Protein 1
Amino acid sequence: MKKIILFTLVLMSSYVFAQEANESSKEEKFTYTEKGLSPRSIAVNLKGMTKTDLINKARAWRIEKFTEPKNKAKEDDHDDDYDDETGKNNSKKINLRGNVNNAICLNEDSKRTCENAFISIDVIIEDGTYTFKPKDLLFRTTYGKKKAKVKLNFDKTELYSDNREIKAGHELVPSQLEDLFNSLHKSLYNYITDQEQEDEW
């Protein structure tokens, strides 16, 4: 009888944990406008998971998603300790950098061209919490008949003119950036919470 009661309690705890995690993950989505990326980061509370648990999961996700040849990015990343606002070193920052194939598509001279994008993302981890923070994105554009690199630091944007109009040829880019980072975050969240993985991006 004790074993049955214990098993029931474990199931109930897992169900509550999944509910809480699921609700947190649905609160925010990335959007991209003339003001840049918003929000700048998304924090998810996962009660019951330790800092070590989250670090191990995030590292495993990084290896699985970004090192296999069949995937769309290459591993080029590192981990750092992360100081919070008090200066105390109680967080771990996992930085992910890689190339995503055909991530950004442009309309140029009635033709659609797609370019690879170099992305940089920080995942900042504490006990029961992780923060997903896109750091930078770089892609090549042929707009204006010259190959040029467009670097987005997400606090400012090079895609909009001074009058806040999207630059010609870049109309598809804001939604593509939203889809890319929302899909990446969904992939990480699903991996950490042991949910079914999809072809997220």
Protein 2
Amino acid sequence: MKTVTRNLFAVLAVGSLLAGLPTAAQASGEQASPTPVEVVTVPAPSTLTDAEMAALSPGSVSLAAPASSGATARAANPYKPLCTLDIGNVYKRTSGDKYKYGTVGAKPSTKCTGNVPRIEQSTAIYRKTAGGWAKITGDFFSFSAGVASLTQKNIEYVCKSYSKNDYKVVTLGAVWYPGLKPVSGGAYEISNGKLACG
């Protein structure tokens, strides 16, 4: 798996798809207190072209806290847990057997080496079309506070037929570190071959 660089947001922002989303490059030593209603991740765009998808790298992305410099920054962030957002596999879910044609899904997760004030993820499923990639689900949003990990286990698309298609799961995530602005990033994973799900 390759690491998604911060170019993910540059590519999507160029198309005005994710305007205003703070990136890891914007994180600094400034104070930022997350509140239960503060949301950093934004909904994924409804379509992505092949070029936009090709500009991304599959797999996982590091959501590490930026390097602190100076005594004030070190005092505000005495520890630096490393957090990684990983999409995992895109597959036909066994739990989808209750539906006639089954379901496609994934279990994206953010894992940190220590507790952080807040983790959030926004995930959507895309299907390959003639013109690129179309979002076929709404955005699944999850967050948790004071934890070291967050896994979304409810990401699924209910298939309408057995026609074979390629799928990608795109997750945008953010992590709050003590005394810092949120660090955000995103990743995607493609299905291992075409899945029997239309």
Protein 3
Amino acid sequence: MACRSKFWTIVFFIFYLVLFILVLYHMNMIAMIMMAFGMLMDALVSMICAFRKK
């Protein structure tokens, strides 16, 4: 997460904004699946960044 680009920051912001809207509309199961997917993608981006050769 420390070396994420501006692009990924914007992507995750929009993703979590949609997630928040789903929670407001009581679509909790879809929101829970999106949250799990978002955390997995966040971890994947961080892992790729950490192991990328500089």
Protein 4
Amino acid sequence: MKKGILHVIVVMALLAACEDEYFPEGFLPYQVEYMLTNDSSRTWLVTGWEVNGDPVAMASCSDSLRLGFEVITNDSIASYELRYNADCSQFDTTSIGALTASGSNSFTDSLYFERSNGTIRSMYVKELTSSRLSVTYSLNGSLVDQYLVPEN
């Protein structure tokens, strides 16, 4: 009987240890912002993405996408998308908005981007380390998943 109870306790402990956590707990919002910007400016390369679960082909340089985050002042971070133009000779830059990491005492799970017109777009963070970023967001009625690595 004791062996059975011990077995159940061990199994429950293992199940609890396998709980899905998409990013390390305990980060403060400013620490998340630091990882995204590397304390000044950082560009993240999209290495893969899916729209509604279907992979998006990234066959040429014009298909490549980068997300950039740059500290403007101590409490202001600009975010933007970088895509090559049609002949892949230079980047076209599109502002995403001013970045804010969610939470007050600890990072919760989202990044908010406020545009100059006041609209706010959010991205749910599935994974965040200093070497990987994985986000999900809604765009024009589609669910987009992006997987990124830092370029600098």
